[in-house]
Amino acid sequence: MLKPSIAVYSVCAITPKMLKKMHVRGLLLDIDNTLTTHDNPEPAPGVEDWIARMRAAGILLRIVSNNHPPRVEPFAERLGIPCICDGKKPLSDGFRRAVEDMGLTKDEVCVVGDQLYTDILGANLFGCLSIFTRPIAPESWKKQTFIRIKRILEKPFLPKQYIGKQN
Q1: CATH no. for residue 19?
Q2: Is 33 contained in some domain?
Q3: String of DSSP letters for the chain
Q4: How confident is the model over 16-75, as pLDDT tens digits?
Q5: Which of 31, 59, 151, 167 has the highest local Cβ count within 10 Å?
Q6: Inside any domain, residue 45
Q7: pTM for the full model?
């Protein structure tokens, strides 16, 4: 249940060609440590160009985040991507709402995220493909203690092979 379909070093390593081979027409994207660092209002370097490439290839995008609207909505608006806040990952509700909003089926979407116990487990419980991204940066013990503990628990289950360039 913690095994992703594919693992990449960065979201920017995901290509339209890769998604076409997987028969994916839509991506359900996490924010923190996937598209940017925690609480950062600016996308990580390369993310905006990557989003433009996805759009040019006809890939539909939705953000599904466990964060609350004050964090998610301004970030999603900046990127021009509709969002689901308070997604309750790994439960399926946020994924289901995003897929319905896209007009796709769960067989046509892929969850992209940096956490095995929320993003990847959630994708597997929902019954769709998943892409694990290496976290952009380590979490702070002060601000994200719970996530740091999850990172320790994830270690034995982390993928052994990644696609793309290591940062």
Answers
A1: 3.40.50.1000
A2: yes
A3: ----SEEESSGGG--HHHHHHTT--EEEE--BTTTBSTT-SSPPTTHHHHHHHHHHTT-EEEEE-SS-HHHHHHHHHHHT--EESS--TTSSHHHHHHHHHHT--GGGEEEEES-IIIIIHHHHHHT-EEEEE--SSPPPTTT-HHHHHHHHHHGGGS-S--BS---
A4: 999 999 999 999 999 999 999 988 999 999 999 999 999 999 999 999 999 999 999 999
A5: 31
A6: yes
A7: 0.92
